[in-house]
Specification:
Blueprint lengths: L2 H19 L8 H20 L4 H13 L4 H28 L1 H4 L8 H10 L3 H8 L3 E7 L8 H15 L3 H13 L10 H27 L10 E5 L13 H29 L5 H11 L6 H18 L5 H14 L5 E7 H11 L8 H12 L6 H5 L6 H18 L4 E7 L4 H13 L8 E6 L2 H15 L2 H9 L3 E7 H8 L1 H21 L3 E7 L11 H7 L8 E7 H7 L3 H20 L9 H22 L4 H8 L30 H10 L4 H4 L2 H10 L3 H10 L1 H15 L16 H22 L9 H30 L3 H22 L4
Parallel strand pairs: 1-2, 1-8, 2-3, 3-4, 4-5, 5-6, 6-7, 7-8
Length: 833
């Protein structure tokens, strides 16, 4: 059957079947609540269409159906509704996971097998092999708090999916019972280390198997020495705004990563012992196992495995050689590090530390600071005693982190930790401050990529100027030479969108990449771009494959590097099957762009002029919204922004600074995007785009836009990813605020732009409904939005009542109800924060 039919059969219909089993669970009032919930959902839908407030909808429902207005009665039922709904969401997630192989084209376009077959058909086998010598993809797992299921629930989802695939009704019923008795909330916030270990425990087997499967398939054509797929890791390395990450936690997680690698190698040996039962082999395998962690570098271990393989080939007819080859491939791929840690810190912290070391530093402008650092890097480092006396709270961690990197590289190999990322890089000094930190400890030669992260619109515009100054700097040239004249530059979609809006962020990132690539080539530097992407379009998400495929011939793309976080990890990489599919989709995107070049995907100078013009209009509209006098107040009072920190889903705070007042510069992108998603106005994913498209049509450029959408993958991907954001948006949930005497003017502006964007997305794409050309995604979103409807009404009700309640007990109850709805809405929305 086709994928859409499979989805309908295996997800929608099975959902209706298994959902009815919830009613059989032996819990108080469950049957009554389960029967009343569909009626409540229908009342919510009708009430919203009649523009009733959430309070009016819920008050009328309880008077009509339960004949009560008592606080305790209303709260009791709403809590049961919410508990029931969060389990329905989990059931839906498990069903989608179980149906993955039937609803996704595992061997179709985007798969590695398809690319290999196509290259053979077109006689491009040699070109494929040549590209693979240098081409890589790196998936970096982060600790960004977008996963709202506790670890225990994620494990249940995996088991539930297995039971569904096997149609094991007894096991399904048992798991439903288990779900009924299991809390969906963390009792306390995780520590950075528990966060890291939880992520590792959940993903290590999946990535180990999926990556090795791909590497094995690639080995037929790959002649390159390096693995084609790499795994990166941020938890316990990412210090930016997380005061709980320090040298100790970084060292601990590096050791945990090493342990993961060796645990897999011990398992490889265990499997070999079961097969290599020939004379003398037990002793050889035992010797290898005994020495396993005493090898100083992976090459020594590989040499020992190859000696074992030679004996098997020479004396035992090569029996089970494929298993030995698998072991070798694992060591080549994962080394002693399993995943490469990255270190990240905000540029402002480095600047403050250097300013304490040299008080005159703070009085210099950016260029003077750059020149000062160049001079100091060429001079003798300051006395260690002076560094030890620094009072800055992060000084010890700043300098200690370099020594930790040295320790980790000795234990795990250079790939164990070889990148230091600098958030909010605004000028060359911010890069040289890290280089100077190394110099202070005499670690100038430490193998470390100093990686600037460009995030805001201004930083992206200034990025070429920043790197040019560095490329022209003799001290930085020495550093680059030590790194093989290879520069990694990171771009941040999350803060970029928060700063400039969806369209401008995407356009400025592409322009910055093009300029940086041209600049780097002129200086003999090989630049690699690392994309800080989140789940939703507002944070660089959406269709990741199309995004990289769309870059076509605009960028060289020797490597694709991107972050994967929270919900995206569990939804896209939750099983070996889904992990392999999504890894291949990312890997082949850049590969195919180079292998099967398509000139239609190249952006011309005329195209960039059009994108620039659209971006200017969009930025003006988005900036006007951000600067609106009610914008921040609306976020604080009419979205659940201030409640994200109470969910205990992350070790890091929701904002960087310590100010109690809301400041968008300090606010993390995740709560910013998540807050808008909760009220079903995905502002960061569409705002400004509709205004820009309307402007182009008004200018008489409508036909040009439509042709641009039809013929250019970059522009069509921009449009379609924004469609995803709007498909998860609805003005219905905030229509009641049009009667609010304070917020009416702002809500009108938000609604007008949502309507405008929806209209022009359809017009430019020629589609009759949003995502018409992607029916599978469309159906998934529509079904999830139906599930969400009562939860969204309950949340709006709780927020409104919490604001007006005088009784402390009532306030506590409304807040508890509000917090109960938050994770369920995020989980049901999939990749919405």
């Amino acid at each position: 059957m086709d994928r859409l039919t499979a989805y309908d059969t295996l997800v929608r219909m099975k959902y209706e079947l298994y959902n009815s089993l919830f009613l059989t669970l032996p819990f108080p009032n469950l049957e009554e609540v389960g029967i009343k919930l569909p009626l409540f959902t229908e009342r919510c839908r009708e009430g919203l269409e009649e523009e009733k407030s959430p309070k009016a909808i819920i008050d009328e429902f309880f008077i009509d159906i339960f004949k009560t207005e008592k606080f305790e009665d209303v709260m009791g039922v709403l809590f049961l509704f919410t508990q029931f709904l969060e389990r329905q969401v989990l059931l839906f997630d498990a069903l989608e996971q179980a149906a993955f192989s039937e609803t996704h084209g595992l061997k179709e376009s985007g798969s590695l097998g398809y690319a290999l077959e196509l290259s053979k058909e077109r006689s491009l086998h040699e070109k494929f092999s040549e590209i693979l010598k240098h081409y890589r993809a790196r998936i970096v797992l982060t600790a960004h708090p977008t996963q709202f299921y506790p670890e225990v629930i994620l494990e249940i989802i995996d088991e539930f999916s297995e039971a569904i695939q096997e149609d094991d009704l007894l096991r399904i019923e048992q798991i439903l019972f288990q779900l009924g008795m299991t809390s969906f909330r963390n009792l306390s916030s995780p520590t950075p280390l528990s966060e890291a270990k939880g992520l590792l425990n959940r993903t290590q087997d999946v990535f180990y198997e999926a990556i090795l499967d791909i590497e094995k398939e690639l080995s037929e054509v790959q002649t390159g020495k390096n693995p084609a797929l790499e795994l990166g890791f941020w938890p316990c390395g990412d210090r930016d705004g997380n005061p709980y990450v320090d040298v100790k936690t970084t060292l601990e997680v590096a050791e945990a990563l090493r342990d993961v690698a060796f645990a897999h190698y011990r398992n490889e040996l265990k499997n070999l012992k079961k097969r290599l039962t020939f004379p003398g082999m037990a002793e050889r395998l035992g010797d290898l196992e005994e020495k396993l962690e005493r090898y100083s570098v992976p090459e020594e271990l590989l040499e020992a495995i190859e000696k074992l393989e030679k004996v098997v080939v020479d004396k035992h007819q090569g029996l089970f050689q494929d298993q030995i080859e698998h072991f070798k491939l694992a060591v080549k791929t994962f080394g002693f590090h399993f995943a490469g840690l990255d270190l990240r810190q905000d540029s402002s912290q480095h600047e403050e530390i250097i300013s304490e070391l040299y008080p005159e530093y703070s009085k210099l402008d950016a260029e003077e600071k750059t020149a000062f650092l160049e001079k100091e890097i060429n001079s003798s480092p300051p006395p260690r005693e002076k560094i030890a006396k620094l009072s800055h709270p992060l000084a010890e961690d700043f300098f200690g982190s370099f020594e930790a990197i040295q320790t980790i590289q000795k234990r795990n190999g250079p790939q164990g930790l070889e990148r230091y990322i600098i958030s909010h890089t605004q000028s060359p000094q911010h890069v040289l401050e890290v280089l100077y930190g190394l110099h202070c400890l005499g670690l100038d030669d430490l193998p470390l990529d100093i990686t600037p992260l460009f995030e805001t619109v201004n930083d992206l515009k200034n990025a070429p100027k920043t790197l040019k100054r560095l490329y022209d700097s003799p001290v930085y040239q020495k550093h680059l030479k030590r790194r093989g004249n290879r520069q990694i530059a990171m771009v941040g979609f999350s803060d970029g969108t928060k700063d400039g809006g969806y369209l401008t962020c995407n356009v400025e990132i592409l322009k910055a990449k093009k300029e940086l690539e041209s600049l780097s080539q002129a200086h003999g530097v090989d630049i690699v771009f690392f994309d800080g992407r989140g789940g939703p379009p507002a944070r660089g998400g959406g269709n990741t494959r199309k995004f990289y495929r769309a870059l076509g011939e605009n960028l060289k793309q020797n490597e694709i590097q991107l972050t994967v976080q929270g919900q995206t990890i569990s939804s896209n990489f939750g099983s070996v099957e889904s992990a392999r599919f999504n890894l291949e989709q990312i890997f082949t995107a850049g590969l195919e762009a180079r292998l099967f070049s398509n000139h239609e995907n190249s952006l011309t100078d005329e195209d960039f002029k059009l994108l620039d013009a659209l971006s200017d209009v969009s930025l003006k509209a988005y900036s006007d919204l951000r600067n609106h006098s009610l914008f921040l107040r609306f976020m604080e009072e009419r979205t659940p922004l201030n409640y994200f920190t109470k969910l205990n889903v992350a070790s890091r705070p929701a904002k960087r600074g310590k100010s109690k007042n809301l400041d968008l510069n300090d606010l993390r992108a995740i709560p910013f995007v998540g807050a808008w998603s909760q009220i079903r106005l995905s502002v960061p994913g569409f705002y400004g785009l509709g205004t820009a498209l309307k402007w182009a049509y008004d200018q008489g450029d409508g036909e040009k836009l439509e042709a641009f959408y039809k013929n250019n993958l970059f522009f069509s991907t921009l449009i379609e990813n924004s469609m995803q954001a709007l498909a998860k948006s609805s003005e219905l949930f905030t229509t009641h605020l049009l009667k609010d005497p304070v917020f009416k003017p702002l809500v009108e502006i938000l609604h007008e732009e949502a309507v405008r964007t929806r209209k022009y997305l359809l017009k430019v794409s020629g589609q009759k409904t949003l995502l018409e050309d992607d029916p599978l995604v469309k159906q998934s979103i529509e079904l999830r939005e139906k599930l969400l409807l009562p939860l969204l009404v309950i949340q709006q009700y709780a927020m409104g009542e919490l604001k007006s309640a005088q009784d402390p007990e009532h306030q506590k109850g409304y807040e508890k109800l509000l917090l109960k709805t938050l994770p369920s809405i995020i989980n049901a929305s999939r990749n919405s924060a």
